């Protein structure tokens, strides 16, 4: 039974991390799109966002090689960042009349 519990815990933690990293990736994709839609895109900002996008994509690919504890630490590390960035994005969209 302990093996099943460990598998279930890993699966649950893995899915939460996938959702979190997917959210961080989606935010960067949206910001990159926003930047391309302005008359003079900020090349440095685009470069930084693309680097962050690739970083989070790489983390998502490595999840299966991580332990449950490592994944839980990743969630704890990046959850506050996602919440803050998601709030900023929602306020921005609401101000533009999109939300």
Structure explained in plain terms:
This protein has 3 helices and no strands. With 99 residues, it is mostly helical. The protein has one domain (2-95). Helix 1 (2-36) packs antiparallel against helix 2 (43-62).
Please tag this protein with its features.
0% strand; 99 residues; mainly alpha; 3 helices
Short structural summary:
The chain has 99 residues and is mostly helical.
Main structural class: mainly alpha
> What is the H-and-E element order?
HHH
Nearest-angstrom radius of gyration? 16 Å
Give the proportion of residues in helices.
over 70%
* Count of beta strands: 0
Number of domains: 1
In terms of per-residue confidence, which ranges show pLDDT below 50 for 5 or more consecutive residues? none
The averaged pLDDT comes out at 93
The rough form would be described as: elongated
Q: Report the span from N to C terminus.
A: 46 Å
Strand content: under 5%
Main sheet record? none
* Total DSSP helices: 3
Annotate the secondary structure layout.
Layout: H1 2-36, H2 43-62, H3 68-95
Helix pairs in contact: 1-2, 1-3
